[in-house]
Design a protein that fits this description.
heterodimer, A: 663 residues, alpha/beta, Rossmann fold, 4 domains, five-stranded parallel sheet, globular, B: 114 residues, alpha+beta, Cytochrome Bc1 Complex, Chain D, domain 2, two-stranded antiparallel ribbon, 4 helices
């Protein structure tokens, strides 16, 4: 690389931010110091000679340079800041929003975005925590299918953002993260900016991002930005990271040796498809199976993925187990079956599973010895097929791919992209002689589906009138108020016993968005607001089941929703505790034959959120939400939700603080 | 305690081994909460697909002896409760409590579930 390509090229004549800052510091010192030769002596006549001052009086030239307007500033006014060019690049990628907590390390880009870029494409959304910003981008993508970017502050902001990035990584969601970083240790302002900088901030998240870079020139920025976008948006999707030098943002554009800056065109990559031979073999096994089972987790990346899965399932009359990483298969379809069908299968095809092992094995947590029991769920001889794009980006440190499962046909490929070829291959592989038998298989499933629906309703009726309110009642009272709208369940945190998926007629891709991915608590509130933002632009109604513990990780995101007029109905599942952890401690105590110490709480000390109870409705009200609560009587719930729905339809967010059963 | 459930059956008697315990559903409700049963089974024993594999213990059809044997030994998916941490007297009361919670309404009587 030629030296002129470096951002810190001292040979250039244009304005240099480092020199300017250094000049300001010295000028300030000169103003407060005695004026050199003209200053009266301050020591007694008989004292020792005054030591020679360490700072000599400035020459006339230096004094002028330090007190007059620096010439370099005048040059800057006439040029285009590097961060303006960066805005041009970002605009080319059509990124609609920028959820962000502000910071000095990207002040230049911030200023360019709102002044030069006119706060459009992207529009700045003020966030109060970097994890909230990433969570919003995460939820937004699941509705819009397009990534957002966020800016974070060097070391500290990125550490705040890290949990959100990890969730996005595990959930295969693209988020573009740019971290401001003052790289030049010799010239950056001393003190806080140094604490907030590092040689390689990207290292913080390298284990759970698809790619990262540290550009050193505007052209490098343009190439990296487009590469980041392309990498993030190639299945399997994932977050990407850029460390962006503060100096590079602030410095004006200059002559790059006659080289004209350009913005590379973004051309989407086609998703990887399964090998033709492997597809044929998978089709042969499926077509010949007596009890094929399709298990899906993040298989339907788009609404078309649902259509394809329905076509495959109906062609085979195969049971489908939807693990719920995305809305893969209509809940109203008779082939939608519970996980226990895997035990009867002779062929199982898993698509975009993060944990194939757990699909075909059971595990019992034995708190007594710390080692659980494993047991296969499969019949002997069952064949396994996998289509999983995540095999293409496996990393070592964070092993979210779970335990190793031997499979008979393995395709490291995108499931949705492979489905058309697989469907055609299955149709070709089914002989006419088998078609009647396959059709009869479907009849069995129709009956089982109908019976299953009735059993679910019976289970929902238990504790229907209880206080605290049952989670089934919570979910169905909510459904009753939104069923006639174009609704989207944007998050369901804290575990409401999966009632929405069991009772609501989910059919469209936006009816269910899956969960956080990494199960890092704190995802629900920001992700639901990000998804609600995307739904707002599409005219849809957004609803979430918001748990108490999740909300308290970064409740400031409520303010962001109110500030930017993002309508969302948040119905709280407030069970007043970190309930999963309550059960874990209880479990360990029992195996150790000890009584759990609860203090004055309901559950194990350290797991309850009570004494005092948090008034979430007041918290939300304080940040501009319409809110009501605590609602403890199930008879009060329906009318309260009806009021809240009206508020949300008017364009405002609304929250109901509902006291609920634990699960 | 911050939940309210009407209790239809206040007192019952169960044979347990050679001993006979006078069972109190009211005491059982307190023991049910104090010993953490509610955490997986819900305050009315309604259970959850997430925590009890969908098992409902409200109005369990298990006779007391079988109920007790399961609680003491369990299938390991549920953590066992020895007599050291849950007395037989409390367990009898808990059994009375889960038998006493209101029976669920018929699905057909709940408009939201039709």
């Amino acid at each position: 690389m030629k030296r002129k390509d470096f951002a810190r090229d001292d040979s250039r004549t244009e304005f240099n931010r480092r020199k300017f800052l250094a000049g300001v510091a010295v000028a300030g010192a000169a103003v407060s110091a005695p004026s050199g030769a003209n200053a009266a002596p301050t020591t007694a006549p008989d004292a020792a000679p005054a030591p020679r001052p360490s700072a000599l009086p400035p020459t006339a030239k230096v004094a002028a340079a330090e007190t007059a307007t620096p010439q370099e500033i005048q040059k800057q006014e006439g040029g285009k800041p590097g961060s303006d060019f960066m805005v041009d690049v970002i605009k080319k990628l059509d990124i609609k929003y920028l959820p962000c907590n502000p910071a000095s390390s990207f002040r230049a880009l911030h200023e360019s975005l709102i002044d030069y870029g006119q706060n459009k494409q992207p529009e700045f959304l003020t966030c109060m925590h970097e994890e909230s910003a990433v969570g919003m981008a995460h939820g937004y993508f699941k509705i819009a299918g397009k990534p957002l970017m966020t800016l974070v502050h060097g070391t500290v902001g990125l550490q705040h953002a890290a949990m959100g990035i990890y969730n996005a990584w595990c959930d295969r969601v693209p988020v573009i993260v740019i971290g401001g970083n003052d790289l030049d240790a010799a010239h950056r302002p001393p003190g806080v900016p140094t604490f907030h900088s590092a040689q390689d901030i990207n290292a913080l998240v390298r284990d759970f991002t698809k790619w990262d870079d540290t550009p050193t020139s505007p052209q490098h920025f343009a190439q990296s930005m487009v590469r980041m976008y392309k990498t993030a948006m190639t299945p399997p999707y994932g977050p990407v990271m850029m460390s962006l030098d503060a100096g590079l943002q602030q410095e004006p554009m200059r002559d790059y040796g006659g080289e004209k800056l350009y913005i590379p065109r973004y051309v989407p990559s086609s998703p990887p498809q399964g090998d033709t031979g492997a597809v044929k073999e998978a089709a042969r096994l499926l077509a010949g199976a007596e009890r094929p089972v399709v298990v899906v987790d993040r298989a339907a990346r788009t609404p078309n993925g649902i259509k394809l899965l329905v076509e495959l399932a109906e062609t085979l009359q195969a049971a489908v187990v939807d693990q719920g990483g995305r809305m893969n298969f209509p809940k109203t379809h008779y082939l939608n079956r519970p996980p226990n069908v895997v035990g009867q299968a002779d062929v199982v095809i898993g698509m975009e599973l993060s944990d194939f092992w757990a699909v075909v094995n059971s595990y019992v947590d034995n708190g007594e010895h710390g080692i659980g029991f494993n047991e296969s769920k499969l019949k002997a001889g069952t064949k396994l097929i996998s289509i999983n794009s995540v095999e293409l980006i496996t990393k070592s440190n964070y092993q979210d791919f779970q335990r190793f499962q031997v499979v008979d046909v393995s395709m490291p490929a995108d499931a949705e992209a492979t489905l058309p070829a697989l469907i055609e291959a299955v149709k070709s592989a089914i002989p006419d002689s088998r078609k009647d038998a396959i059709a009869k298989r479907g009849e069995t499933f129709r009956n089982a589906y109908a019976n299953g629906r009735e059993n679910v309703k019976k289970a929902a009726a238990i504790a229907w009138d209880a206080s605290p309110i049952s989670t089934a009642r919570l979910v169905m009272e909510t459904w009753n108020q939104i069923k006639d709208l174009d609704w989207s369940l944007v998050a369901s945190e804290g575990n409401v016993s999966n009632w929405p998926n069991r009772l609501w007629p989910m059919e469209k891709h936006h009816h269910w968005l899956g969960r956080s991915g990494g199960y890092g608590v704190g995802y629900g509130a920001p992700a639901s607001i990000g998804a609600a933002l995307a739904n707002r632009d599409l005219g849809r109604f957004s609803v979430s089941f918001q748990s108490d513990g999740d909300l308290m990780y970064a409740p400031g995101v409520l303010w962001t929703a109110a500030r930017h007029k993002i309508p969302l109905l948040a119905v709280m599942h407030n069970n007043r505790g970190y309930h999963q952890e309550s059960m874990h401690v209880q479990r360990l105590a029992n195996f150790r034959n000890r009584v759990v110490y609860n203090g004055n709480d309901l559950a194990a000390l350290g797991t309850s959120i009570e004494n005092p109870d948090i008034e979430y409705h007041k918290l939300a009200q304080s940040m501009g939400w319409w809110a009501k609560g605590p609602i403890k009587d199930p008879a009060d719930l329906g009318p309260a939700i009806k009021e809240a729905v009206a508020v949300v339809k008017s364009g405002q967010p609304a929250l109901l603080n509902v006291w609920t059963q634990p699960r | 305690m911050k939940f309210s459930i009407s209790i239809g059956l206040a007192v019952a008697a169960f044979a347990c081994g050679n001993a006979a315990f006078a069972a109190s559903a009211e005491n059982g409700k307190m023991a049910f909460v104090k010993n953490g049963c509610w955490q997986c089974h819900g305050f009315e024993g309604q259970g959850s697909v997430a925590t009890s594999n969908g098992k409902v213990i409200a109005h369990t059809e298990l006779p007391y002896e079988s109920f007790e044997a399961f609680v003491r030994g369990t299938n390991r998916a549920m953590p066992p409760y020895s007599e050291t941490i849950l007395s037989s007297a409390d367990l009898v009361d808990i059994y009375a409590y889960v038998q006493s919670v209101p029976k669920p309404p018929e699905v057909s009587s709940i408009p939201l579930l039709k």
